[in-house]
Design goal:
Helix 5 crosses helix 7 (315-346) and helix 6 packs across helix 7. The protein has a 7-stranded mixed sheet. Strands 10, 11, 12, 13 and 14 form a 5-stranded antiparallel sheet that branches. Strands 5-6 form a two-stranded antiparallel sheet. The protein has helices spanning 13-28, 45-50, 87-105, 131-144, 213-251, 280-292, 315-346, and strands at 5-10, 32-36, 68-71, 112-117, 120-121, 127-128, 147-151, 175-178, 189-194, 255-261, 264-272, 277-278, 298-300, 304-307. Strand 13 (298-300) and strand 14 (304-307) form a beta hairpin. It is built from 7 helices and 14 strands. It is 40% helix and 19% strand. The model has no long low-confidence stretch (mean pLDDT 96). It folds into 2 domains: 5-211, 3-Layer(aba) Sandwich (Aspartate Aminotransferase, domain 2), CATH 3.40.640; 229-346, Alpha-Beta Complex (Aspartate Aminotransferase, domain 1). The protein binds pyridoxal-5'-phosphate. Pyridoxal-5'-phosphate (PLP) is lined by residues 12-14, 17, 40-42, 118, 122-123, 151, 153-154, 179.
Amino acid sequence: MPGPHKFFYGNSGAEAVECALKLARYHTGRQNVIAFLGAFHGRTMGALSLTGSKPQQKRRFSPLVPGVTHVRYPYAYRGCTGGAQEEEAFSMGCARYIEEKLFKTILAPEEVAAIFIEPIQGEGGYVVAPDNFLRELRALCDRHGILLVVDEVQSGAGRTGKWWAIEHSGVEPDMVCMAKGIASGMPLGICMTKAEIMDWVPGSHASTFGGNPVSIAAALATMDIIQREAMANAAKVGELMLERLRGWKETHPLVGDVRGRGLMIGIELVKDKATREPANALRNRVETLAFERGLMVLGCGETSIRLCPPLILSEQEATVALDILEESLSVVEEEHRQAGAVAGTSA
Ligand SMILES: Cc1ncc(COP(=O)(O)O)c(C=O)c1O
């Protein structure tokens, strides 16, 4: 994103998103926004309104902020009902739907302030948006004067081997939301925009603790480490991990898909590779077994495991982690096989 830039400093990812939402409305004078199914943008009222991940995150909190329309994320492995589709065509269809259906039926484009997107959905399942989709989204925004806001709270700060995941596509956003790793765990959320966009008058938006000196010092030190070594390490070690994990699609019956960039890797488990039936309980069991063996992994989406280790992970540590994960996976696969055999016998 070419400079000059302006920044808002808050204390969390949700606050960075909240700022982007308010600023998008303020700057454009438009009320509506578009977000994606599967998205996670935070839990404050505005950010929660953009979130489209799990019903429990919204249950009993309505009515939320009005004016948000959720559309399909280019999750090609799952595709539309009726089966998976070829990635490029499917993701192009997701982008074109906005202009060809939404804008021609229920949403006037000149009333849309922004499109919010995670270049890699985190909570939604570590799903990578294809480059052609992001480029089409950019073009669509340009055609209609809509701001493109990328939520890099999870995917940013060097994790994918570049500062921001959106960089892999060559697309330049209008705003970037960042938090999480940017200050190594100290509370800091930042909304960065092209300078001309942050045109609100003083007093429009602020936070008492935003940009506190301790968090800023932590961020400066963190950014130095990311720039000097951690980002390159994430690219190198992440690729080694991905290389090994891609092989699991052939060797492990439960592994349906492996995807990611750098040290942001998702492994989607399925009961059956042909039907792609989600394996939620089996995924949870793998997590538990891995934890008992000393490896903490977290699920994401309906049936995926996320790997998002510290960016300083060594090759040796990565090997140990994948050994533990593979062993846990093998145990669950054997349990699943035996359960199937027993069910088959009694039938
Ligand atoms: C993509 C994304 N956006 C926003 C948030 C919200 O961040 P926070 O929990 O710091 O408010 C998260 C948190 O998981 C996230 O993954």
